[in-house]
Write a structure and sequence with these properties.
Elements lengths: L7 H13 L28 H20 L1
């Protein structure tokens, strides 16, 4: 998981939990207003395209399951 206020240890722990529970990692440095004193810049954190593609894949799987019901 990526978040402007997370350090590498936080991100590593979040990755471990996501892997353990079969979750797709998310997060970024999009903008929801100013908060904290991190000084993080818009776009400075990014989950990457592989995680985005995994989210799309899971959405499609859920849609197929819904259609079968």
């Amino acid at each position: 998981m990526k978040h402007p206020l997370y350090n590498e240890e936080h991100e590593m722990r979040a990755r471990e939990l996501a892997e353990r529970y079969g979750l797709v990692q998310t997060g970024s440095s999009d903008f929801h207003g100013f908060y904290g004193d991190s000084g993080a810049q818009l776009g400075s954190k990014n989950i990457g395209m592989a995680h985005f593609e995994e989210l799309k894949k899971r959405k499609e799987q859920l849609e197929r399951k819904k259609e079968q019901v």
